[in-house]
Amino acid sequence: MPPLSNRYTQLVGIDHPIVQEGLGPFRTPKLAAAVSNAGGLGTVSMPGMPVDIDAGARTFREHIEECASLTDRPFAVNIPVGVDHEGNVLPFTDVYIKMVLAAREADSTLASRLTVMTTSAGFPGPYLQAIKDAGMIHQHKVGSTRQAVKSAEAGVDVVIAAGFEMGGHAPSKAVHTFVLVPSVTEAVDVPVLLTGGARDGRGLAAALAMGADGVAMGSRFIVSEENSDWHPNYIQALLDAQEGDDVAFNGVYGPCRGLRNAASEKILSGAVQAPDGSGDQPTEVELERWKIESMQLSQTEGDVDNGLVLAGQVSSALNDVISVAEFVPAMADEAAGILRDLAAKLQGATSVRT
Ligand SMILES: Cc1cc2nc3c(=O)[nH]c(=O)nc-3n(C[C@H](O)[C@H](O)[C@H](O)COP(=O)(O)O)c2cc1C
Question: What is the pLDDT of residue 349?
Fold first, then answer.
């Protein structure tokens, strides 16, 4: 019997309330399958926003099919909702969400495994009904209590409360998990996952104590044996990171957290130049493309100085490469043990007093 079975694990059909959340624009089908096979929920990440979005959708679909071939357990996809200045949803989001729904409709085996759609960044309003009609569980990542309430009222099944210490794109309100999570769990009735800063059973126990139903991690799972698609230099960069080595810079959808290096310093100092060699400032589109290509430079080619290394603050506390298969159940056991010990200590203290 899994030690921390709860309404979230029952809703999603997993053993442990532990999620490997989206790690786009990077390849994660093997990692996602490993986390799902270990009893958690793995997530296939979106592959980026290439100029040819249909080619991006084909790559994404290959990743989804690879994951489905490696696990018969539930897994998720993560699709950020990009929005332009007028509030219109960007084409990549639309194409990717429709691709996922079509892929499931065409393949019932895939549909029985790819059961969770996680959205993030902008509000997923235009897609809520289609995701529900497809029978998928809809998780949405938010950075404020107001967004959590809006999402739950709109019918989202699970809210992921994202604290500012998280890796990758972080909430613009910059609220940290310890403040945000209790406010969100107080405000909504749907299951809540904490994301940002969790790394082991202590973080999971703390999340449960704050009223959350589980945790969604990014950085911890990057540093794992099963994350074999990523360049070893990326993994080593996270292992080498010390406290204070992370920084928030302007990403693609707002603030983004990664390691301090030549690439993030270039953004912070406004030194990125137009690609035509003129020395001019890049246009907004050119700057976004530079950022995405720079992210992929570190992840696929291992250039962790000139490429952006997205990572959470928790990287400074990651000192070992985990085996996902062993780690996920052990993390749940550790959290359950902590909660049991605390309850027993409280019981002891109470009986001494009475
Ligand atoms: C390398 C990297 C890429 C990420 N890409 C995405 C993404 O594509 N979509 C998304 O919603 N979150 C993304 N995130 C955020 C993670 O899903 C997760 O919420 C975050 O890593 C949690 O913080 P932690 O790193 O402290 O565990 C990314 C995080 C990292 C570290």
Answer: 81
The mean-pLDDT minimum among 115-119, 131-135, 247-251, 284-288 falls in 284-288
Q: DSSP readout, 325-336?
A: HHHHHHHHHHHH
Q: How far is the CA of 169 from the centre of ligand 1 (A)?
A: 7
Q: What is the DSSP string of 146-204?
A: HHHHHHHHHT-SEEEEE-TTSSEE--TT---HHHHHHHHHHH-SS-EEEESS--SHHHH
SS3 of 120-151: EECCCHHHHHHHHHCCCEEEEEECCHHHHHHH
pLDDT (tens digit, 9 = 90+) per residue, 47-100?
A: 988 889 999 999 999 999 999 999 999 999 999 999 888 889 999 999 999 999
Mutate to test the pocket of ligand 1, among 81, 166, 233 (most ligand atoms within 8 A of CB): 166
- Say yes or no to pLDDT of 199 above 60: yes
Residue 351's pLDDT is 64
Least confident of 4-13, 27-36, 289-298, 315-324: 289-298
DSSP classification of residue 315: G
At 259, give phi and psi (nearest 5°). -80, 150
Angle at 81 between CA 77 and CA 83, to 5 degrees: 165
Backbone angles phi, psi at 121, to 5 degrees: 65, -110
- Give me the mean pLDDT over the 196-223 stretch: 98
**DSSP string of 237-303, one letter each residue:** HHHH--TT-EEEEE-SSSEEEEE-SHHHHHHHTT----TTSS-PPPPHHHHHHHHHHHHHHHHHH--
Task: Report which protein residue has its CA nearest ligand 1's atom 6.
Answer: 23
Ligand 1 proximal residues by C-beta, below 6 Å? 21-24, 45-46, 78, 80, 120, 141, 162, 166-169, 195-198, 216-220, 310-312, 314
Question: Could you tell me the domains of the chain?
Answer: 7-230 (3.20.20.70), 232-314 (no CATH)
Q: At 28, is the secondary structure helix, strand, or coil?
A: coil
Do residues 44 and 67 make contact, with C-beta atoms less than 8 angstroms apart? Answer: yes
Q: How confident is the model at residue 237 (pLDDT cuts 50, 70, 90)?
A: very high
